[in-house]
Amino acid sequence: MDLLNTLVDKGLRRVSPTREEALAVLASSDEDLLDVVAAAGKVRRHWFGRRVKLNYLVNLKSGLCPEDCSYCSQRLGSKAEILKYTWLGPGQATAAAAAGVAGGAKRVCLVASGRGPTDRDVDRVSDTIRAIKEQDGAVEVCACLGLLSDGQAERLRAAGADAYNHNLNTSEATYGDITTTHTYADRVDTVNKAHAAGLSACSGLIAGMGESDGDLVDVVFALRDLDPDSVPVNFLIPMEGTPLAKEWHLTPQRCLRILAMTRFVCPDAEVRIAGGREVHLRTMQPLALHLANSIFLGDYLTSEGQAGHADLEMIADAGFEVEGAAEVTLPEHRAGARGGGCGSPTGADGSAAGGCGPRAGTGDGGTGGCGSHEGGGVCAPAPAARAEEPRTDLVAVRRRGAGTDLAPNA
Ligand code: SF4
């Protein structure tokens, strides 16, 4: 396809596709799907080789949020039976982080539900960041605490945070349909605050909320304009007890096209498969590794992922390799651009102290904005169905910790 040759050429040169080209990827046929994956895979390998970065979520504070994000099991009025607890202390968070690092994660994502942190909350999270860095200076720490007020990003950076996550989630035009308690502009503002403070910005989307192809292209182009270092792509887990519980729109093929489009539009950014990987990609997860260079290891915020060892086996079986702590995630031009962005060998002051890729760093992630990394599920046998139709019969979402005394992220 001329289109794919054009997209590969542009991706290798970091030239943006046109909106029409991005829409054509989403509209491509199942017959062309492997060609689309192969083309986007060339771009992925050019910038990231066969490396897969592992990220690990630590849910510092779960549930009881006053905001009304429709996709989120932690929202105001949510009837989802999720774990609810207030702030984990530095010791608990450090122990959870250590488990993820032992499993191969190089980034720990500290997430808290809520509209945004108070200054006291920033103090707490700063203590936790310092404790994690004391335990392992090489681990990247990303904070995901909601909307930031002036000065908070700088304080998190000073405490050792490498990155800050806040997702745009969906297009500006449809944002008000998803959330009413804050605006799209609020989210853009927080991503810009993270950038300005020298934090590596992480910002992505949630697909499967009933949006159009145009909405998906809009949000991915908006992300390109914001220029985050990492772009988590979440696939909506329609959790029972949330307004979007009946929104099953995704197929594995659709997910692959969305990831391919994201790769073409953001060729040199860390594209991360986030919540919903297991539920929606199912047996096609290994194919998605040809598009994304980053995944979460193990569980999500309020739902279970597949077991960590299954993630590691999948990566090896698909011919990829887990990115080591000493390897720089981002391409050189991007890693050095902000002097301290993730994967950079130098800190904000040009010293070797601020980068989060190499072991020398002082040492991010979450996928989406708080609460948007829902995911995980199990498959049960089901009769065949047409590939282009969502298979809700294959999926049972398991809540993290359901029916157990497990500690968070145990
Ligand atoms: S996504 Fe974040 S702000 Fe929105 S309801 Fe969930 S926890 Fe609250």
From TrEMBL:
Q: Which domain of life is it from?
A: Bacteria
What is the E.C. number?
2.8.1.6
Biased-composition ranges, Gly residues, are: 363-378
Please give the SUPFAM superfamilies that the UniProt record associates with this protein.
Radical SAM enzymes
Q: How is the cofactor bound?
A: Binds 1 [4Fe-4S] cluster. The cluster is coordinated with 3 cysteines and an exchangeable S-adenosyl-L-methionine. Binds 1 [2Fe-2S] cluster. The cluster is coordinated with 3 cysteines and 1 arginine.
One family from Pfam that matches here is BATS
Essential cofactor(s): [4Fe-4S] cluster; [2Fe-2S] cluster
Segments carrying the region annotation (Disordered) are: 363-410
Q: Name one GO molecular function term.
A: biotin synthase activity
The reactions it catalyses are: (4R,5S)-dethiobiotin + (sulfur carrier)-SH + 2 reduced [2Fe-2S]-[ferredoxin] + 2 S-adenosyl-L-methionine = (sulfur carrier)-H + biotin + 2 5'-deoxyadenosine + 2 L-methionine + 2 oxidized [2Fe-2S]-[ferredoxin]
How does the record describe its quaternary structure?
Homodimer.
- HAMAP family on file: BioB (MF_01694)
Its family?
A: Belongs to the radical SAM superfamily. Biotin synthase family.
This protein is called what? Biotin synthase
